[in-house]
Write a structure and sequence with these properties.
Helix content: 40-55%
Shape: globular
Mean pLDDT: 94
Number of domains: 1
Number of helices: 3
Number of strands: 3
Low-confidence stretches: none
CATH class: Mainly Alpha
């Protein structure tokens, strides 16, 4: 899954879709996921980064990553 190229993400977690004018906010883990997707990281790489940064078990990260990616898809922020 890739983020749409025109999606903007600020350092404070503000997400803007210029195609629709919609804006959202993300917490630090959401920001980390979006940046990783923009950089072409795999789910495994994203999961490992979050596990290491926040000391969360892999099964929780995988479930939350799946849910977050579905949310991004529903908001039409991914390709």
């Amino acid at each position: 899954m890739k983020m749409r190229k025109n999606i903007a993400l600020s350092d404070s977690g503000f997400i803007f879709n210029p195609s629709t004018g919609d804006s959202y906010s993300a917490n630090p883990i959401g920001q980390m996921i979006i940046q990783a997707l923009q950089n072409g990281k795999t789910d495994e790489e994203i999961t490992k980064s979050i596990e290491e940064e926040y000391m969360i078990d892999a099964s929780t990260v995988e479930k939350d990553l799946y849910d977050f990616k579905n949310m991004l898809k529903n908001y039409k922020l991914t390709e």
